[in-house]
Amino acid sequence: MKRATLATLAAATTLALPAATAADTVDIGLLLPFSGVYASLGNEIEAGFALGLATYGNELGVEIILHREDTEVTPAVGLARTRKLILQDDVDAIVGIVSSGVLGAVRDLVDGAGVPLIVANAGNDEATGEACSPWITRVSFSNGQVNRPMGRWMAEQGIETVYTLAPDYAAGRQMIEGFAGAFTEAGGTILGSDFTPFQQTQDFGPYIAQAQASGADALFVFYAGGEAISFVNQYASFGAGDDLPLYGSGFLTSQLYVDAQGPSAEGVITALHYVPTIDNPENAAFVAAFRDATGRTPSEYAVQGYDAARALVEALETGARDRETLGAALRQVSFDGPRGALAIDPATNNVVQPIYVYETVTGEGGMTQIVLAQLPAEADPVNGCAMPSMPTN
Ligand code: PHB
């Protein structure tokens, strides 16, 4: 565990806030993968979170004590670390979680303990659907939300048949389900789907060959982190691109690792809730500040960490300081951020946001993104969520 004080006591007189006292301290668990196939994602979310606290939290007059825990990419590890944060560190709220599998594993614990969780990545549809909780607020995306619009958009482009590939775990299955449902509803046909063993597949060649043999118009995939780098590089070497153009969930060609793919990513078309080339003043300021702080261009993972910090600060600005008051305040946050207008849907506690279709191309300083379409703000269907009211302890 690392204790880090990011926002120290500031002069309360400068703020329209309750006067800061020594008791204005909150303990926050930062629960991310710092090892394993999603380690770079965890580090990027942490960098965005630190920038968000520095940007919005410095004047707050509240001392934020961070308790940093590594989930790896393993549900049982994530559950053990969450238990430690809640029982031993007595945190007031938790921020983080990258893997849908880890989110599924900790859902009952945070819900039962009444600890607010700001989800800063994991798209698990159930956490804001049939397993929704007043304690879980997601500022990142849901797996269905990112992929449904792309299913409709690809059908509109005249693509009639698609083959799909994704890692075999909750996020892979839900991303493909979201895409395929919308694509078929819009008149398309899925010719075949494969799910590759998660964190274990070294050679994607046999799966790509199978997709090519299907005769589909296009291949649609979800991969992220180290698997996205291997997949895109192997796909380019395989040389199927002319017959079978590559589309995907935008994590495939994330700014975070697109330079490790380099020209292999050229021309790949994907969809996501954020790309660093979005043209609005909040994004320009964020990109400049993130580059100053880290020397690199921010990805969707960075903006998710940044917006998670901003949501936490907005909740603290209402005077919330403990689990119950923070939990209630987090569900009310809304602001214009780098990805556009952001609000939490009270029916599910999932973020509502536009989705961008983008093409990856070679730019001056490395690979970059051209936005092809901004699709309207997408709220999830309630997916079986009957949101309970917040219990009062
Ligand atoms: C997930 O497991 O929900 C997940 C992981 C990595 C991503 C997106 C979603 O880039």
TrEMBL record:
Residues 1-22 form the signal peptide. It comes from the Bacteria. Pfam families: Peripla_BP_6. This is Amino acid/amide ABC transporter substrate-binding protein (HAAT family). Keywords: Amino-acid transport, Signal, Transport. One of its GO terms (biological process) is amino acid transport. The keyword Signal applies. InterPro entries: BCAA_transport, Leu-bd, Peripla_BP_I. Belongs to the leucine-binding protein family. Gene3D superfamilies: 3.40.50.2300. Residues 25-361 form the Leucine-binding protein domain.
